[in-house]
Amino acid sequence: MVRRRASLTRAVPAVSRAVPAVSRAVLEEVRGLQGRFTSRLHDERVASWLGLALGVSFLVSFATGLVSHFMQHPPGWMRWPSRPVNLYRFTQGIHVIGGLATVPLLLAKLWTVYPNLLRWPPAASAAHGVRRLLVFPLVAAALFQLVTGIMNIAYWYAFRFYFTTAHYWTAYVLAGALLIHVANEWPTVRRTVMTRPQDAVGRRAFLGTVAAASGVITLTTVGEAYSPLARLAVLAPRRPGLGPQGLPVNKSAAHAGVTVLARDPGWRLTVTGRVERELSLSPAGLRELPARTVRLPITCVEGWSAQATWEGVRLRDVLRMAGVDDDARVRVESLEPGGLYRTSEVDPPHWRDPLTLLALGLNGEQLDLDHGYPCRLIAPNRPGVMQTKWVHRVVVS
Length: 397
Ligand code: HEM
Ligand SMILES: Nc1nc2c(c(=O)[nH]1)N[C@H]1C(S)=C(S)[C@@H](COP(=O)(O)O)O[C@H]1N2
Ligand SMILES: [Mo]
Description:
Shape: elongated
Oligomer: single chain
Radius of gyration: 28 Å
Number of domains: 2
Mean pLDDT: 92
CATH topology of the largest domain: Fumarate Reductase Cytochrome B subunit
Number of helices: 13
Bound molecules: protoporphyrin IX containing FE, the ligand Nc1nc2c(c(=O)[nH]1)N[C@H]1C(S)=C(S)[C@@H](COP(=O)(O)O)O[C@H]1N2, molybdenum atom
Low-confidence stretches: none
């Protein structure tokens, strides 16, 4: 407060010499407004603590988001392991649930610092002005990530752009702007966070309330990935246990337009491409292979996940029967006529994994039509979008 007033007085002569009447009016206005920010919580200490928490949270979002991106789009040299089975479940759960818990932190931070918008003069020097201007992309990118992320998991596709692409590139903007911001503000953070305050203005109570709000959001959503708390997950769009055969569904068979094709008694699983023998297997033919049962989660990119028991045949047994190289690349294709998730790539670590099945059954019953009847892929450590349903072709390359 004291420093702000000193800079105000210093600025008055310069500005008022240029445009005396206007500037005096503006200054009066700003001073009037500034006087209204009476809460002492608009202070550097609160801003620093919230900034630290936000910095950690955005870093975690960035890292877990990149994991999700590169699992779905691995560069040629990259091979994701198929273990640990729950790795993606963990990283994407952290991404989405951690992102939701960040909302109160960001709102509190913006409330704490917004009086700075009216700071006069706006900058002490050109360099300082540039540093301050860089806060705008930071705030815009942070708000964009949280708002579009939440709209996406709420299935509210009100935006014209494709969510994943926009969210992906904005993540780099956010990371860059954040890096610059942290470098600029680090001296303040060190000064405030590492010293004890001389006054007590209810910072602890304020920060405690913000932390509690984050905690409530976490408690009411984490059950979408951690089933013991499923009943508390009232804010989550999907909950384990709800849906056909106790498992949520994102896209139903009707929605995918496969109801007729999937029920066709003439359905065959074709294995084709770079194979020694092409295969065309009926459900009965598939059942001649050794039957396997695995416990694996479906982990949606939207953060929800649910454990299930799958019965079927190992993808590797089918591929060995067709005769394929150990480092073959494999693509499974759905009966679905279009859509983003019609096919998925299965790299060697995944198709060779004994847990990777072409599933025919789920939780003790024949696979429900909505879960991919007659046959769907289920593999460990893999985003839900790559667990293709209604499979009818396996292409080897
Ligand atoms: C409430 C907050 C957030 C929610 C609900 C959210 C949600 C999501 C969802 C659902 C995806 C999966 C997209 C898909 O594969 O279809 C995703 C991916 C991603 N997120 Fe977020 N997100 C949030 C915050 C953030 C933040 C703060 C960052 C950056 C620091 C970030 C960076 C990313 C990245 C890089 C991806 C990968 C995109 C891709 O696959 O190309 N997210 N996020
Ligand atoms: N062919 C096809 N497979 C698909 C999808 C799809 O839209 N089409 N959705 C995927 C998504 S986003 C998820 S999360 C899982 C969900 O599987 P479930 O509906 O059996 O729970 O299926 C995946 N498999
Ligand atoms: Mo999904």
